[in-house]
Amino acid sequence: MHDSDFDVAGRTAIVTGASQGIGRAIAETLATGGANVAICSRSMDRVGPVAEEINDADDADGQAIAVECNVRERDQVQRLVDETVAEFGDIDVLVNNAGGEFVAPFEEISANGWQTIVDLNLNSTVHCTQLAGEVMREGSGGIIVNLSSVNGQHAAPGESHYGASKAAIIRLTETLAVEWAEHGIRVNCVAPGLIQTPGVAETLGIDSEAMPPREATDRRIGHAEEIADVVRFLASPAASFMNGETITAKGVPRAGNSMSQDLGLED
Ligand SMILES: CCCCC/C=C/C(=O)SCCNC(=O)CCNC(=O)[C@H](O)C(C)(C)COP(=O)(O)OP(=O)(O)OC[C@H]1O[C@@H](n2cnc3c(N)ncnc32)[C@H](O)[C@@H]1OP(=O)(O)O
Ligand SMILES: NC(=O)C1=CN([C@@H]2O[C@H](COP(=O)(O)OP(=O)(O)OC[C@H]3O[C@@H](n4cnc5c(N)ncnc54)[C@H](OP(=O)(O)O)[C@@H]3O)[C@@H](O)[C@H]2O)C=CC1
């Protein structure tokens, strides 16, 4: 009989943007599975308590450290990598989660607005992947999980900058899976549909109360934990034959797949 291995215990993972939302759920899920996590956000006041909560939790075997790091700034990412190695000795898993957007028509996005979103989503992923990847290539390999979006797979109005940056993350994932396979590094991607997080609530003004249960299969918004579970799978040996893939997690499959369908803005 085959004994499946979804175990992440003893691994060291960096999770960017983990003070709230999907990143926080990923950090908690990996730590509950026994992984040590180095989590970052732009504010120690926001990310520090998350690390404390993980370290205090009875059901989390892994340890957490918090690092203040703006992933748009390469020198700060280098510090995140250095502090992770100093604390835990290695980097086995990198989750490029930090990201965000504003919704605006293409013609109303200034050069700086475009640069801001590309820096936040794509260039941050490049910084983290190059710098953590250096540690992985010099060591025994690793696993990288990138956060894209259904908006990186399908067009949606107001999402030109965000969609372009998230589409580029999918192609970067595919390319690195090929280039770094020889170093024992697997690179995969998750493309969530609409997930209830503080960021989405801020961007779209969605009420954070009354979440439908995970068991509901009708059109609904997703839970951050439903993305965290996919990431945990990709970070585990169970995904050993997955490389360069993008897993879409968006609830009910529909013809067009855009987030505005999730919101009921189009059929
Ligand atoms: C159909 C719905 C799909 C929803 C999909 C959701 C995807 C997610 O990822 S949601 C979860 C992520 N969380 C967030 O997005 C948080 C909310 N957003 C923000 O906090 C910010 O917008 C930011 C982090 C994305 C950018 O903040 P910051 O770095 O502080 O940037 P600035 O405010 O300084 O602005 C830089 C630049 O961008 C222009 N700009 C900002 N907002 C808008 C806007 N709504 N419309 C047009 N342009 C905008 C701003 O004017 C600046 O440009 P310049 O004026 O030329 O300097
Ligand atoms: N929620 C959704 O519907 C979807 C989300 N996604 C993607 O999932 C990821 C997480 O989204 P979500 O949880 O909703 O986002 P939230 O806005 O709720 O959380 C974003 C997190 O990233 C951190 N962060 C933001 N900017 C930076 C930065 N420059 N450096 C370091 N940390 C930063 C924030 O912390 P702080 O403010 O403390 O710095 C926060 O912890 C993003 O990449 C997003 O694009 C994809 C598809 C759908």
Structure overview:
The protein is α/β, with parallel strands linked by helices and 267 residues long. The chain has a single domain (12-261), classed as NAD(P)-binding Rossmann-like Domain (Rossmann fold, 3-Layer(aba) Sandwich), CATH 3.40.50. It has eight helices and seven strands, in the order E-H-E-H-E-H-E-H-E-H-E-H-H-E-H. The protein has helices at residues 21-32, 44-56, 74-88, 111-138, 160-179, 198-204, 224-234, 259-262; strands at 12-16, 36-41, 64-68, 93-96, 142-147, 185-192, 246-249. Strands 3-2-1-4-5-6-7 form a seven-stranded parallel sheet, with helices on both faces. Helix 1 (21-32) packs across helix 7 (224-234) and helix 4 runs parallel beside helix 5. The termini are far apart. The mean pLDDT is 94. Bound molecules: ligand LGGBLMCM and NADPH dihydro-nicotinamide-adenine-dinucleotide phosphate (NDP). Residues 99-104, 108-110, 112-113, 116, 120, 156, 197, 199-200, 202-204, 259-260 line the site of ligand LGGBLMCM. The site of ligand LGGBLMCM has 22 residues, from helix 4, helix 6 and helix 8.
Give unreliable regions as ranges. Answer: none
User: What is the gyration radius calculated from CA atoms?
Assistant: 18 Å
Ligand kinds: ligand LGGBLMCM, NADPH dihydro-nicotinamide-adenine-dinucleotide phosphate
Helix and strand content put the structural class at alpha/beta
Query: In total, how many domains does the architecture comprise?
Result: 1
Helix amount: 40-55%
Gap between N and C termini: 46 Å
How are strands sequenced across the largest beta sheet?
A: 3-2-1-4-5-6-7
Give the overall silhouette.
globular
Strand count: 7
CATH level-3 fold name = Rossmann fold
CATH superfamily, please? NAD(P)-binding Rossmann-like Domain
The CATH C-level class name: Alpha Beta
- The CATH architecture can be given as 3-Layer(aba) Sandwich
Number of helices: 8
Give a short account of the largest sheet: 7 strands, parallel
Helix and strand sequence: EHEHEHEHEHEHHEH
What portion of residues belong to β-strands? 5-15%
The chain-level mean pLDDT equals: 94
